[in-house]
């Protein structure tokens, strides 16, 4: 499967990658294939930066990957942090105290 994905990304066709599909890919790599977090982050960055991959907001996804890798949050929580950082008025309601440790967003208990 990895060889097919590499061939696909090396081609000339352009593809739209929804954020949710990237999140699912990260989950499968980490939880099913037990790929270490730094490798998952590197692979995600490579996909986001691929010349033939289009995403809604690559900057938000790159920030998501950074938070996922360095703050040890789930990809979904890292995505919430990246979105909240992009909107300075955002507050994250979450039981996950790890979100508050990021320091760039405000978290409240639900």
UniProtKB/TrEMBL annotation:
Keyword Coiled coil: no
SUPFAM superfamilies according to UniProt: PIN domain-like
Swiss-Prot/TrEMBL keywords: Hydrolase, Magnesium, Metal-binding, Nuclease, Toxin-antitoxin system
Domain PIN: start-end pairs: 4-103
GO molecular function annotation: hydrolase activity; metal ion binding; nuclease activity
Name the record gives this protein: Putative nucleic-acid-binding protein
């Amino acid at each position: 499967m990895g060889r097919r994905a590499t061939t696909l990304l090396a081609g000339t066709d352009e593809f739209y990658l929804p954020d949710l599909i990237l999140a699912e890919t990260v989950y499968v790599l980490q939880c099913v294939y037990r790929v270490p977090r730094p490798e998952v982050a590197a692979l995600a960055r490579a996909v986001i930066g691929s010349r033939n991959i289009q995403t809604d907001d690559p900057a938000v996804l790159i920030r998501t990957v950074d938070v996922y890798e360095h703050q040890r949050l789930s990809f979904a929580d890292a995505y919430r942090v990246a979105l909240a950082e992009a909107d300075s008025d955002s507050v994250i309601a979450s039981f996950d105290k790890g979100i508050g440790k990021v320091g760039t967003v405000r978290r409240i208990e639900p």
